[in-house]
Amino acid sequence: MALLGILVMAIGGAAVWYWRLKTMREAGSEIIDSVERMRGAYKRRQFRNKAEAAPLASIGDPAIAAVAFFMCLAKEKPMYVEAAKDVVRNRMKGIVRPGDMEEVVIFGEWASKNVVNPEDPIRRFRDLWTKALDHDERRQLIGIAEEVAEVGGDRTKEQELALQSLRRTLMN
């Protein structure tokens, strides 16, 4: 009978240890899964940031870059985007060829669609504008941007910050 008791205790002990090891394995799997989810979220965010910047990164013409920036400014007042497009078309007449104007405006609108902050294009296009534009052309760029921001009334806070950043970037 004692042998049977020892056998039952050994089986019970083995079952308890099996259960403990199984629980530890499940806890370890959950930790690994959460780390993998965090790693995946980080990689997705990195990819999303690259994808958002990709349309802007493909722009090499200062006029197209300016139109994309103007569309970013106009996007801050969604109700007045069409009126802002008209301002851009009128002011960019002598700069962009008439046959390409509509395509440039549509591309600028598309490129600015994923831009969160209107100051981002300024940072991206700063070197392009400073190398390609002379002092008068920079002043003209700032003037057009101010007109776009004033469409529909007073400027928003974001537009004002973007214009200040543009002035600092281009006039210093």
Tell me the layout of helices and strands.
Layout: H1 2-57, H2 62-74, H3 81-91, H4 101-111, H5 120-132, H6 135-150, H7 157-171
Helix pairs in contact: 2-3, 2-4, 2-5, 2-6, 3-6, 5-7, 6-7
Tell me what the structure shows:
The N and C termini lie far apart (97 Å). The chain has 172 residues and is mostly helical. The chain contains 7 helices and no strands. The model has no long low-confidence stretch (mean pLDDT 88). Helix content is 78%, strand content 0%.
* Rounded mean pLDDT score: 88
Q: Which secondary-structure class do the elements indicate?
A: mainly alpha
For the terminal residues, how far apart are their CA atoms? 97 Å
Low-confidence stretches: none
Give me the Rg, rounded. Answer: 30 Å
Helix content: over 70%
Please, how many helices?
7
Largest sheet: none
The amount of beta strand, in percent, is under 5%
Give the H and E element order. HHHHHHH
Number of strands: 0
Described by the principal axes of the CA atoms, the overall outline is: rod-shaped
Give a quick rundown of the structure.
By secondary structure, the chain is an all-alpha fold. The protein has helices at residues 2-57, 62-74, 81-91, 101-111, 120-132, 135-150, 157-171. Helix 2 (62-74) packs across helix 4, helix 2 (62-74) packs parallel to helix 6 and helix 5 runs parallel beside helix 7.
